Amino acid sequence: MSNSMDDVAQKAEAFFVIGSNTTEQHPVFGTMLRRAVRFRGAKLIVADPRRIDLCDFATLHLRHKPGADIALLNGLMYILLDKGWEDKDFIAERTEGFDEFKATIMEYPPTLVSEITGVPINQLYEAAEIMAASKPMAVIWAMGITQHITGVRNVMTLANLQMLLGNMGVPGGGVNPLRGQNNVQGACDMGGLPNVFPGYQPVTSLEAIAKFGTAWGLQVEGSKVEIENAEANLQPATFQLSNRVGMTATEIIPGVLEGKTHALYILGEDPVMSDPDTHHVRDCLEKVDFLVLQEIFPSETAAYADVLLPGVSFAEKTGTFTNTERRVQMVRQAVEPPGDAKPDWWITAEIARRILAGTPGLPSLNGPFAGWDYPDTSAIMGEINALTPSYGGITHARLEAGERLQWPCPTSEHGGTPVLHVGKFARGLGKFTPIDHIPPAEEPSDDYPMVMSTGRVLYHWHGGQMTRRAKGLMQVYGEALIEINPEDGARLGLNGQTRVRVTSRRGSIEAQAWVTDRVPPGMVYANFHFPEASANELTQAILDPVAKIPEYKVTAVKVELTN
Amino acid sequence: MTNKKITYKPIDPEIKELVRHHGQTGEAALEVLKDLDAENRLTPATITDTARALRLPAHRVYGMATFYSMLSFEERKNILRVCDGPVCWLKRASEQSLVSSVLSAVGDNWTVERSSCLGLCDRAPAVLVNDEQAGPVTGEDAPKICEGWRGVPTDYSQPRPGEVRVMMANADKIAPDSIESAVEYGAYSGLKSALQKKQEEVLDIVEASGLQGRGGAGFPVGRKWKFVAGAKGSPKYMVCNADESEPLIFKDRVLIDTNPHQLLEGIAIGGYACGATEAWIYIRGEYEYQARLLERAILQAEAMGFLGANILGTGFSFKIHVHRGAGAYICGEETALIESLEGKRGEPRLRPPYPPSYGFRGKPTAVNNVESFAAAPHILKNGADWWKSLSNYTTPGTKMYMVLGHVKNPGLFEAPFGLTLRQIIEDFGGGMQEGSTFQFALCGGAAGTIVNGSLLDVPIDYASSQKGISLGAGAFLVCDQTVSPVAFLRELLHFFAVESCGKCTPCRVGTWRSAEILTRMAIGMGQPGDMAELQALSDNMLLASFCGLGQSVPIPMNSAMKNFAAAFEKAES
Amino acid sequence: MPINITLNGKKIEAQPGQTILEVARGHDVRIPTLCYHKDLSPTGNCRMCVVDVKGSRFLQAACVTQVSDGMEIETDSPKAVASRKLTLGLMLANHSPSCVTCDISGECELQDLAYEYQVDAPVWGMKGTRYPVDSDPNPFVRVDFNKCILCRRCVAACAEIQARDVWGVAKRGFEEIIVAGAGATMLEARCESCGQCVAYCPTGALSNKLSYGQGIARARQVTRVATTCAYCGVGCQFDLLVKHGKVISVASNPDAPVNGMALCVKGRYGYDYIHHPDRLKKPRVRRYLLEYKEKRLKGNAWDWIETDWDTALDLTAKKLREARDNFGPDSVGVLTSAKCLNEENYLMNKLARQVIGTNNIDHCARL
Lengths: 563, 573, 367
Hints:
The complex is a heterotrimer of chains A (563), B (573) and C (367).
Chain A: H1 5-11, E1 14-18, H2 22-25, H3 27-40, E2 43-47, E3 60-62, H4 69-82, H5 88-94, E4 95-96, H6 98-105, H7 110-117, H8 121-133, E5 137-141, H9 143-146, H10 151-164, E6 175-177, H11 184-189, E7 196-197, E8 201-202, H12 206-215, H13 249-252, E9 263-267, H14 271-274, H15 278-287, E10 290-295, E11 307-310, E12 319-322, E13 327-331, H16 344-357, H17 377-387, H18 396-400, E14 405-406, E15 430-431, E16 450-455, H19 471-476, E17 481-484, H20 486-492, E18 498-503, E19 508-515, E20 523-527, E21 555-561
Parallel strand pairs in A: 1-2, 1-5, 2-3, 4-15, 5-6, 9-10, 10-11, 16-20, 17-19
Antiparallel strand pairs in A: 7-8, 12-13, 13-14, 16-21, 17-20, 18-19, 18-21
Helix pairs in contact in A: 1-3, 4-7, 4-8, 4-10
Chain B: H1 13-21, H2 29-38, H3 44-54, H4 58-65, E1 78-83, H5 86-94, H6 98-105, E2 110-115, E3 127-129, E4 132-134, H7 179-184, H8 189-195, H9 199-209, H10 221-230, E5 237-242, H11 251-258, H12 260-274, E6 278-283, H13 288-303, E7 319-324, H14 334-341, E8 365-369, H15 370-382, H16 384-389, E9 398-405, E10 411-416, H17 421-428, E11 438-444, E12 449-451, E13 475-480, H18 485-499, H19 505-522, H20 530-544, H21 548-552, H22 554-563, H23 565-572
Parallel strand pairs in B: 1-2, 5-6, 5-8, 6-7, 9-13
Antiparallel strand pairs in B: 1-3, 3-4, 9-10, 11-12, 11-13
Helix pairs in contact in B: 2-3, 3-4, 8-12, 8-15, 9-10, 9-12, 11-12, 12-15, 18-19, 19-20, 20-22, 22-23
Chain C: E1 3-7, E2 10-14, H1 20-26, E3 50-53, E4 60-61, E5 72-74, H2 78-93, H3 109-116, E6 141-143, H4 153-161, E7 167-170, E8 177-180, H5 196-200, E9 206-208, E10 223-228, E11 237-243, E12 246-252, H6 265-269, E13 284-286, H7 287-291, E14 304-306, H8 309-327, E15 332-335, H9 342-356, E16 361-362
Parallel strand pairs in C: 1-5, 15-16
Antiparallel strand pairs in C: 1-2, 3-4, 3-5, 6-9, 7-8, 10-11, 11-12, 13-14
């Protein structure tokens, strides 16, 4: 998030929530939005194919078709430009590329947009009016925007909108993606990505390679390019940092069948539940040479693991999480790990140490942070401080002293940064990018006439390993439910609690139908919390070309009654 | 996401239609509930649908449905509401139990309910037969109720000796349903006179007249109207408090019965003076007859150009609505009334802010009693000095009085201020009944003082409560030697316990506990310490209650225990 | 412009618009409260905070009465104290009398005040129960209206913190009762089971079902550990309540930077997986790794064998090293975890890049 949650909730005059079921996926932030609407009179526009709970509070609900986000946004920007409601000063002073962008937008008049999106023209005008009249407006989104083949384009279109309205770099405005997992922000910050070192220092940057190579005691001189065909390179590794962008999770696993991936080290993830096209994922995991899984439960993925290492839950270790607004907070050990389970940082360090120790002919690694002897996570944080500028001043000691720190926090004197992009963008001028609508990869057909969208529900979390083991949560939501509109329900002859079979080109699941007008006619909504009916049996592994995010939100399916 | 067990169910189309009919806002909730109740359709399911259609939380509508005593989840074909008020209790005491005689008389198609007080004290013992007011009901009449017997309303066409009639003038000549007859006897000439003046002049005249609010507190009407006129915020609203739910009080009903246009005219004058555009008459649900009378009168007045758009060509537009309550004494408290008007439980609001600055819909609002409004046309017509001249006493104008109980001629009369209780009994009530000697009187209303003979000669006005005898809304219930002060106080506390809104602890539990103790004492089961506990409960209600209801319960409690200490002491042991 | 008031005989300055309670708390003068909570709109219902204001016939509720210039306030006058005692008695008369078996005995605000003012339940008080105990089927919230003092904090918490409007007030007078929706169950009334009402309830009327009977309020037996939630990215903080080495409950921590007292159903009630019997307690390897040379997916070769750490770690290190050395560093994929610590993610990044030599590291950010 460019702004912090409190800033947005307290200062925004309006919220534009698109592709975020905030009250179920980020419930406490969702209630902040509800309060802002109820007690502060903030305007709320919800754009979502589903009538999510937040719609109860919405000034306006734009119920656009799944995958029509760009058309919708371009259509709104057409009206804003047509009426002269854009922030001309902001555009002139802080952005570039406006003319080219405008030319593209002018190809999205309301009639066309209404046709593509299914949103009535008057609602488009109403939304544009609210946006023009209520500033600052905060744009809030989550996976509903990103899990499309156009995920990156969707995000850039939202950035276009906020620049057009001059809502960037101001309190109560900004672009605010809500991060899903508790520490997905931190995992990204810490270099858990194929293209960057910690602190988003590119792996392709010689400067960064030199920095980390030196710190970690590797040869720096003449960092050589990896050989394209890994299998041809049978020599022991030369202990150099790779300067080639690696594969994403959605490429690593399918890489097994392509002969690229031979071993997998998975920490606390459950690809069988969370990755698209489960059948294919199972196939890959079955065929990989070696899979080590570090987990707290025997997950669905554990069935394919060669080694299963017992890690610990958040209650059994001390360290930090970074939330969606870049706030770094302490996690504190409350209880001892069960049995022989060990903190995950200890396990990782042991594996690293043992790989290094078992590598013949390895020269001793000389560098300030070459070693793997960590007494505790505070020491690890010290290493992070030294190598990650945005985390430079975030220490356990400061957090324990009660300081509230949001990165960037480069030094021990720095107080953290609640709002990004104040005054100027990270890249200088904000760039308008002309972006056209592209339909989803899989559209309804005669054989698969309905659209399925996937996501989570309030009472469960992701693959469900934790929440399916929480007694009360299971009492409230104990099995997979397929949300289906009453019209479709009537057409299928659904009556009360009825099981349905949902089939896509890749697979089929059976579950209880939940007849509800939360979903529009022609659409079903399924979750992936329950292995016996996981939506990912049906989804396809077609990815956004840049971010490699799968298009979870649009899958063509057919729905039938089971006998 | 909610519990999966909730199956999809669209809002009942009939309820959707009902909600649309009543205006689609939260303020319509009570109307919708009353309609559903009338069709025996009040259930948690229909309440939930009503809430969905009104976009309100279900608990809010359910909270209302269970708050107002006229609404019920029971299936009722015909409803016979038997008055439980102290005046009817007095009458019943001598004529055996009305309820049992009624119960034995009515068939399966009838539901008999107890009602706190029906506002028919001059027809005691009284009942409400569906919407129709009936009484006095004797044992012989009861069986005839199902066949259409309603008794005879008290006739107020002729003044009693000594009355000074202003608001009741021409009661013998005006046909309540005929605006022509009202106009013939001067209706709307006060409004005409007001509209020819500037707003400020009207305010000055009302202030100069010294008219004090007739609800019981006696707050100067002119000053209140000036607050509203000068308050920031628009639009501004007038609200007429016709909730009249306090036992002993029925003057507003008689004023409406005899001359509805007088009230409408007064509200319009107030609206003009305050700069308001709309008014609501909040009338208690038991006064359905009067509500309809007012609605017809409003239509007539609008047709004649006295109300509605561009009144009498002056450019002043003013709309009056009638809003029915559904059984709640607390709604006579002005902020509770406003809450109720807004479609909520009738619970009093925090004050300040007061309604003149923050009232209905959060806008400046003048809330006045029926009688206060009814006086306004006469003041505008005849001037402030004339109004002052009506009363030789400190308080100007005339007042509606109600004299009840063991007097020869109970009923209502209009007279100046400063009467003594003796005058009220002897001169207007015709003296004590044969065989009755004065023991005590409840003065003002249910929340008034219970006085013994020592105060018979104190002139009564809004300030006389300092001397121990209150004017309140002007009612005097006279009891003879046969009535136990302990049992009488029990009746009052029973009323307050049933009618406490429940918001604050001292009143919610205090009234209930006091009633419990008094119930025991009245049947000879008192215990040592009862009086001390009653006194402590009473003190705490006075000191710590949230609103005027709780604060006023101690008035009859304390005066009864002080003036009839011996009777209470006897009941204690 | 500040105004001058006298508080318990001391002349002090106050700001117009401040309530008596705010001014008093600002000057360390304690006024007891029950229905008041700083996070919620004051209602003035319970009348515990009544104080004596010179010139007023009535005591004034400090939580809702604004100070005015020249106001003279006595917070503990005999009149005010007597009133509080009586009001407390009225509450206790309608409150389940059995503190010893109450789940929140020790944290109960009513109990604290009854003790402070030395008020016992009146002898005429509730005998038996007026309402069914544990009357709502909600799996998380235990409802016992016999302990309810009708302060309505639950109603305000639901409306103002959660903005959900499940709880309301029904009936009136002595019959008044808190109600979910149209006399429905909490879940039917669209409850999200966030537990805000429990967190704000001053008595044991609303308590936690999952930890009921475990003595979460017995401070001597329970340790509180402030930590950060492991579910979504909002980053709520709360206290884990630990007794005998087990997490027995989650409690709001009012100092939490992001969420204050608020939590969601998963954060507050989704903790029992921590001690679930399915938890992995020992390293496991497939039998084939110990007994065969080659990977066998079928039969007992694929059975799990529990081992010590050295065995499992050495095997793992060997296999990863072999892949790296035989097929190149990019033949190893590392999936780090968005559920794990920053420090752990850093180590996974370091392992992939320094030890293996690959950038094939990712996590479920996209999923």
